[in-house]
Amino acid sequence: MGSSENDIHQPLLQSYPPSLSPQPSDTKHESDGQLEAILSNGELPFLQRLQQATRIELKLLFHLAAPAVIVYMINYVMSMSTQIFSGHLGNLELAAASLGNTGIQVFAYGLMLGMGSAVETLCGQAYGARKYEMLGIYLQRSTILLTLTGILLSFIYIFSKPILILLGESPEIASAAAVFVYGLIPQIFAYSLNFPIQKFLQAQSIVAPSAYISTATLVIHLLLSWVAVYKIGLGLLGASLMLSFSWWIIVVAQFIYILKSEKCKYTWEGFNIQAFSGLPSFFKLSAASAVMLCLETWYFQILVLLAGLLENPELALDSLSICMTVSGWVFMISVGLNAAASVRVSNELGAGNPKSASFSVLVVTIISFIISVIAAILVLALRDVISYAFTEGEAVAAAVSDLCPLLALTLTLNGIQPVLSGVAVGCGWQAFVAYVNVGCYYVVGIPLGALLGFYFNLGAKGIWSGMIGGTVIQTFILMWVTFRTDWNKEVEEAMKRLNRWENKKEALLK
Predict the structure, then answer these.
(1) Residue 247 CA from chain centroid, whole number
(2) At what angle do helices 106-128 and 185-203 cross, to 10 degrees?
(3) What is the DSSP code (8-state) at residue 204?
(4) Domain ranges in the chain?
(5) Rounded to an integer, what distance in angstroms lies between the CA atom of residue 233 and that of residue 6?
(6) Contact at 8 Å (CB) between 378 and 39?
(7) What is the SS3 string spanning 119-153?
(8) How many CB atoms lie within 10 A of CB 480?
């Protein structure tokens, strides 16, 4: 490497005056350097080091992951509740809301969330290095880019009817879905502010306020949706407008928290003209982040689309949708751990703590894997009855039971893969993971699934099995790369990015 560990640490840890450190209540800085000191202490017996380090790491992970899981769960429930309100208006409205949510809104959500993860990499590393003023600049840069992206996305929403008709949907459903989608246009711009704000707060280990805000907003959302849809009679448009309004409540409440909270005193110093500099390079990292996440999001949407082409599409779609719903709920836990892994790794790299970063990866992966295995065992134990929570059809119950081994395997993989993706975000490997996703998902997974499903007549099981094959390859590649990572080198890379920013150059990945 050419630099000793101490040489790496010093410029990072001295980059900001100690007097400007966050409040003592900040969990991250309560243990700042303590974990690295324990892991580096060769005088302590190995088991004692392991015990002490595990206790500290589990406390930090729980502090981050638990509120993050709540936030993602509530976001999931808000969209689902809007779909339920729409469904009670009639079958056409249910189809329109489902199409608007899965066909249009999920695309925008994945794209904007992916672009927002660039803030996760940069803010996390800057916060670990105590270069707090950088976080506000990154937040503003990301908001500018996501707002510009939102303007482009709004044209897809505006012309959703002809787009859906072009994709083969009936004019009646396309017209109703377009009405629903029009009400989601304000939501796009809520995304452009929410995701950078969310990552800005997560990088500082401030997650609980977002959970409280989201929980309160869900209650308001359910009440307003009921009034708008049923009492005022605004129908589909009212349902989607209330969803957009609820997202804006979250945005405004989180921004007020940033302005008023002592914890953000040094990370938010007001609006800054520097936010408009370095946008092309920031866009490069944001685009890589978006591609990485979107390729994963679309992968399982393609599974559902392929199932619709089978000989008995209704049974295949019903059984797959139930399995995907169960997977979606469990996946929220992995997403929360993904966020925790990203924050922990980026913070420790920025602070110049390679051993802590490596240990954090190990602990969060083991915890996530254990949780996912427990979920997989429960699914297998309840395989014959799990579908009755959704429908009373015996044929669907049998089909779901037949798919449950694949669901259990998917849940197990989801205990590892999302966490490793979070590690990739923490390190700034988004571009590399995007290439891996293209190869594993779209060169291997989908063609193999189509071959097994259609050519070998294995139906939904064949399609899903092939796509799991792509996920297995991707997971092993990420595990291998993570295992072989030189964490001292990652610390150096983090330091270079931060120093480029301080020199008023573009503080981003090459």
Answers:
(1) 17
(2) 20
(3) T
(4) 55-502
(5) 66
(6) no
(7) HHHHHHHHHHCCCCHHHHHHHHHHHHHHHHHHHHH
(8) 10
Is residue 450 within 8 Å of 309, Cβ to Cβ?
no
Q: Mark 492-509 as b/e (b = at least 16 C-beta within 10 Å).
A: bbbbebbbbbeeeebbbb
* Stated pTM of the model: 0.80
Residue 77's closest CA among 228, 248, 218, 242? 218
Closest C-alpha among 366, 365, 347 to residue 357? 347
Distance between CA atoms of residues 218 and 236, nearest Å: 19
Token digits of residue 397: 């119950």
- C-alpha triplet 105, 470, 382: angle, nearest 5°: 75
pLDDT digits (tens, 9 = 90+) for 449-506: 999 999 898 888 999 999 899 999 999 999 999 988 999 998 888 787 667 655 544 4
Among candidates 117, 197, 204, which has minimal Cα distance to 422?
117
pLDDT tens digits along 207-218:
899 999 999 999
Distance (Å) of CA 442 to CA 343, 438, 446, 450:
29, 5, 5, 11
Centroid of chain to Cα 130: 25
The CA-atom distances, in angstroms, between 159 and each of 178, 235, 327, 505 are: 8, 20, 32, 40
N residues, the chain: 510
Write b or e for each residue in 395-433: b if 16 or more Cβ atoms lie within 10 A of its Cβ, otherwise e. Answer: ebbebbbebbebbbbbbbbbbbbbbbbbbbbbbbbbbbb
